[in-house]
Write a structure and sequence with these properties.
- This protein is mainly alpha-helical.
- The chain has one domain: Winged helix-like DNA-binding domain superfamily/Winged helix DNA-binding domain (Arc Repressor Mutant, subunit A).
- It is about 60% helix and about 10% strand.
- It has seven helices and three strands.
- Strands 1-3-2 form a three-stranded antiparallel beta sheet.
- The longest helix has 23 residues.
- The radius of gyration is 20 Å and the shape is extended.
- This is DNA-binding MarR family transcriptional regulator.
- GO terms for molecular function: DNA binding; DNA-binding transcription factor activity.
- InterPro entries: HTH_MarR-typ (IPR000835), MarR/SlyA-like (IPR039422), WH-like_DNA-bd_sf (IPR036388), WH_DNA-bd_sf (IPR036390).
- It comes from Silvibacterium bohemicum.
- Keywords: DNA-binding.
Length: about 150
């Protein structure tokens, strides 16, 4: 027999169903986790997660990037970014260096090895991305992108 903790729900069960069916936050989180798993699997042959791929891609620029700009692009705090950088730095894929203009600040850059790995991984990302877009029920990835950007 299942023992109930409280005598009656304080929030009607109909509200639970409404949240389940309508909550944008819940549905975006579920979609994000599903997409993350799909891209993690696709990028596994490169020993990268989707987050690591995105982080490395954010460093794919002509000049080293400041931590604040990368954290803002990836919508993470600096502590989370610092933790995410460590395994990539240990693998020699990125370099973290002092900013010559302000020794307290750090600049981030891809190493040659990191750029090579990114170059090999991009076709897999492109293929997976095309498959995801093709699977959208309304066939309009640009509309979805615009709506997600508006929410972020």
């Amino acid at each position: 027999m299942i023992e109930r903790v409280s005598s009656a729900p304080k929030v009607p069960y109909a509200t639970t169903l409404l949240v389940r069916d309508c909550c944008l936050c819940l549905h975006v989180q579920r979609a994000a986790r599903t997409l993350a798993r799909r891209f993690d699997e696709a990028l596994r042959p490169f020993n990268l997660t989707n987050g690591q791929f995105s982080l490395m891609m954010s460093l794919n620029r002509p000049q080293p990037a400041g931590m604040a700009s990368v954290a803002a692009l990836l919508a993470v705090d600096r502590t989370t970014l610092t933790a995410a950088l460590k395994p990539l730095e240990r693998r020699g894929l990125i370099k973290v260096m002092a900013d010559p203009a302000d020794r307290r600040s750090r600049l981030l850059a891809l190493t040659d090895e990191g750029a090579d790995l990114l170059e090999r991984a991009v076709p897999t990302w492109e293929k997976t991305h095309q498959e995801v877009e093709a699977g959208l029920p309304d066939g309009d990835p640009d509309r979805l992108r615009k709506n997600l950007i508006a929410l972020s």
